[in-house]
Amino acid sequence: MSTRSFSVTENEAHQRLDRFLRKLLEDVSLSAIYKLIRTRQITLNGGRAAPEARLKPGDVIVFKQAASDRHMEPRVRKRAEGGLSSRRDFRIVFEDAHLLCVNKPAGLLVHAGDRGEGADTLIDQVTGYLVGAPRQGADSLKDFVRPSPTFAPNLAHRLDRDTSGLVLIGKTLPATQALTDMIKHRRIEKLYLALIFGSLPRGEGVIDVPLQRHEDGKGRRRKVQTGQGQRAVTRYKVLATRGPYSLVELELVTGRTHQLRAHLAHLQSPIVGDDEYGAREKNRHAREKLGLQRQFLHAAKLSFEHPVTRQALTLSAPLWSDLALALEAAGFWANDLPAWVAAAKDHAPGVSP
User: Fold this and answer.
1) pLDDT tens for each residue of the chain, 353 residues long
2) What is the CA radius of gyration of the chain?
3) Nearest-10 crossing angle of helices 280-290, 321-329
4) Is 160 a catalytic residue?
5) Which CATH class is domain 75-185?
6) Three-state SS at 183
7) Which residue among the candidates 18, 27, 143, 160 is catalytic per the annotation?
8) Domains 4-72 and 186-348 share a fold
């Protein structure tokens, strides 16, 4: 077996050598890894290293045994039909060396665990974009997303398949960990736009109703139920009402599964197009009138502090055309939408904004 070397980047740094090797050499026992270190078959920066040594960017690990080409391959999901995804159905709202924010279309799963192991997913498409063909320029953003055997770009949060809008992806391990912590401690403000049947009390207010997730006998997720389980809080503001429909702005204070859909249904004002929580017959009439083939729910705005640069960011996603056309068909005007929606811009991957 030939000698191989590995240069540590930020994606592997700040962890113990033995823990990194355990992730890299998944088929090698921990006791064997310790022996390889002790006998200098694995060295750090040209010499013997303690298993508890903390890795730093720029460190070089040399393998005289144990590591093969397979271990050095990037840890990204390659679908059976031929490597990385070449599709780019998403649009880019923001990108720098640390994170990517995209506008996801409806109908696209965010990852393979969401009822589609063989399906092309958002994270597949984003990974293909990030580690695909090199980009032009000395300060290429791709330089910060080198294929790694222990890290791949990661979703910071999720959206339902038929919900469109903003999704954050960490391009480096430190950024991913920081984004996950920010989501957990509610340091990212999330605003959604929804079209609902009827209206809501007093024009604006707070829905504070607990939600309980349920699974069937095979472990598959079912509808959540209101009135029991974990606390769930949604703030709402009615932007405009036209006939049987209201356009509302929703702030997701807590992030429970199907929270917005279940809360609005609890108030007898379900989201238009949501057959799971709403009324199928009313949705059928809405489809005929509005041409809408999915639920009208769009993750429209994120406000947060950049996890690395500490810059204050406010990101917004334009409505996809099916939602814009449905609003027009329902009689809403462009000025019924918040000004920040009209100002929102995105662009296709690989195209300068």
Assistant:
1) 578 889 898 888 889 999 999 988 988 899 999 999 999 999 999 999 899 999 999 999 999 988 887 777 766 655 444 567 888 999 999 999 899 999 999 999 998 765 555 678 999 899 888 877 454 443 444 444 555 777 888 899 999 999 999 999 998 888 999 999 999 999 999 999 999 999 999 999 999 999 998 766 555 566 788 888 999 999 999 999 999 999 999 999 999 999 999 999 999 999 999 999 998 999 999 999 999 999 999 999 999 999 999 999 999 999 999 999 999 999 999 999 999 998 999 999 877 77
2) 24
3) 90
4) yes
5) alpha beta
6) helix
7) 160
8) no
> Tokens 């391959």 sit at which residue?
73
Options 1.10.510.10, 3.20.20.70, 3.10.290.10, 3.40.50.10260; CATH for 4-72 is: 3.10.290.10
User: CA–CA separation, 334 vs 331, rounded Å?
Assistant: 10
Q: Under CATH, what is the fold of the domain 186-348?
A: Pseudouridine synthase (3.30.2350)
Amino acid identity, position 298: H
Q: Is-contact 207 199, C-beta < 8 A?
A: no
Residues in the chain: 353
Contact 235, 253 (CB under 8 A): yes
* C-alpha 180: how far from chain center: 10
Structural domain spans, the chain = 4-72, 75-185, 186-348
